[in-house]
Design goal:
By secondary structure, the protein is α+β, with helices and mostly antiparallel strands. It folds into 2 domains: 8-111, Phosphorylase Kinase, domain 1 (2-Layer Sandwich), CATH 3.30.200; 117-392, Alpha-Beta Complex (Aminoglycoside 3'-phosphotransferase, Chain: A, domain 2), CATH 3.90.1200.10. It is 50% helix and 13% strand. The protein is built from 14 helices and 12 strands. The protein has helices spanning 8-16, 19-25, 76-87, 119-124, 132-147, 154-164, 168-179, 197-205, 207-222, 258-274, 279-302, 317-345, 359-379, 386-392; strands spanning 33-36, 43-49, 54-60, 63-64, 67-71, 98-102, 107-111, 117-118, 226-228, 237-240, 243-246, 253-255. A 5-stranded antiparallel beta sheet has the order 1-2-3-7-6, with helices on both faces. Helix 10 (258-274) runs antiparallel to helix 13 (359-379), helix 11 runs antiparallel to helix 12 and helix 12 runs antiparallel to helix 13 (359-379). The protein starts with 7 loop residues before the first helix and ends with a helix. The structure holds 5-S-methyl-5-thio-alpha-D-ribofuranose (SR1) and magnesium ion. Residues 40-42, 64, 173, 177, 231, 348 line the site of 5-S-methyl-5-thio-alpha-D-ribofuranose (SR1). Belongs to the methylthioribose kinase family.
Length: 395
Amino acid sequence: MTYRILDTVALRTWLAQQPELTDRLGGEAADWAIREVSDGNLNTVFLVQGTQGAVCCKQALPHVRVAPDWPMPLERALYESRYMRTVAPAVTGLMPELYAYDAGLFLIVMECLTNHEVLRSALIADRALPGFSAVIGTYVARTVQATGWVGQPFETGARLLEQFSGNTALTRITVDLVMTDPYRICERNPEPEAGLRGDVRRLQTDRNLHNAVGRLQGRFLSVRQALLHGDLHTGSIMLDGSDVRVIDGEFATMGPIGFDCGLYLGNLALHLCAAPHKTTMIRHEMQAFWNSFSNELRASLAQGGGDLWALSAVGSRGDLIGSFLNDILRDTAGFCGLEMIRRTVGFAQVSDYTLCATHDDRLLARQKALQIGQTLIVEGPSLQSFNDVLSLMGL
Ligand code: SR1
Ligand code: MG
């Protein structure tokens, strides 16, 4: 099918020609209820409700949806579908099921999470049932075990490198928006409010900070430990009670495991800055994430399976696993800091700050996020335990 941007009419026509999807939806095409629910920065999303079932359709646009002047290659949909196929066997029930991918339309058709809510919105509205972070920890540990050099024969990592190294357009977004723009004058950065200008100037001139950011850029671009989700923020997670699903794997790339961990924790930390009265809950979620992630990864690595460490007897592998997890912890702290800063002063900011009751509260929340972010970036390489990470966040 030749590429064209779908509206509800064109999508209905296309769906009606897909026997597997019409069976799933049931009834006649004219009876299906189709509505656009696009919410993210990049793509259009439609929910289609038939008489027997529903599907979610996500199409890549040739530009950034929220910035139409910013061209963006369509291939991100291919990488997202590839990511879903790659990790699905390891994370059954933790992501939507992929039903179909149309290579010409750059269209993903997947399970419709009708009753789920985006985690960021659920947190803001105080509707998130505690315990979601333990599921995310499990999700990250399982994707690492299934795709990382440590958990699999090296041929698996080599194949994944080939399959995902072409996802350069979205990796470019991450390199620019997460690791570069907040630390330089750049027209993509929104004009900071007056009270934040001094903080932003410091971000752009602190040599020590720039060296630490440079180190993290190097880790992100050269450490190929496992297949990352690549954009694991609280807007990439959906909840329905205790049913937790990870969505939006279009930024998938081989990279350092601490990147996924850091982005997730960074978004919880941002929520905490905006809603300091939720300290106990957020601290608990952060700890639950790290416990489930590190315990599950440690247990699976102790069993072996990869070529890495194959020489060490099962009994002595513990030392290597311990130092590997420490490296992940240090990366996690640094990437968490980068995420906090870019979501506070960069192109793609977060709605959590709308929780602040007054302008002054919001300014203080943002300043706190910038301060914690810088500390995590600079101190990250010397951290020894997850408690150290929590302490740097004032927890
Ligand atoms: C131009 S895309 C901006 C941001 O939205 C995505 O969700 C990623 O987080 C990206 O950095
Ligand atoms: Mg997204």
